[in-house]
Design a protein that fits this description.
Elements: E1 2-4, E2 9-12, E3 22-26, E4 33-35, E5 41-43, E6 53-57, E7 74-79, E8 83-88, E9 92-97, E10 101-110, E11 115-121, E12 138-144, E13 150-159, E14 164-169, E15 184-189
Antiparallel strand pairs: 1-2, 2-3, 4-5, 6-7, 6-15, 8-9, 9-14, 10-13, 10-15, 11-12, 11-14
Amino acid sequence: VASIDQAGLLTATSFAGSGASLTALPAANITGTLPAIDGSSLTGVSKTFSQSRIYVDGAATTATTNTRITRFTNTVESIGSDITYTDSASLGNKFVINTAGVYNVAYTAVFTYAVWYGISVNSTQLSTYINTITAADRIAVSFTSALNVVNQVSVSYRFAAGDVVRAHIGGGTVTTATGRAGTAFTIERIT
């Protein structure tokens, strides 16, 4: 039988058939309340899961000013307030992080010819191929020579509030194919 006391210490009074005893093991450094199996709650234990997620697809073109930043034609899903998405004909896609945390980011694309592509953060080199921008601004990058097939680059990354995330390419163009089997970008807060 095990319990967590008010000080956050785990105490086991017995193990089946052994009569052994275990006391005063420190609990993890977590706070709040998590429902226990019996329906009560364990004081001092919690886990918050975010529902913030943006999923866009269908890239018709790149931006006219920021020529290496793609544009997406459809917002399929936009849930929560941790991320703000905007798209502009001249500036392209922009995902602004409103809440610091760890996010999963995935960029899926079908290209018409060999190309570097990936995910940048806080880049100011928006008309420069992603493979030659400042290295610290590339959080995921890949190269494909496979034409007209689905390619994907993804990363889990800890962002600060105010970070700007973009789908960023090298040469080439993306197709207008939609959905996760075409051209799409997903960003979701996980912690």
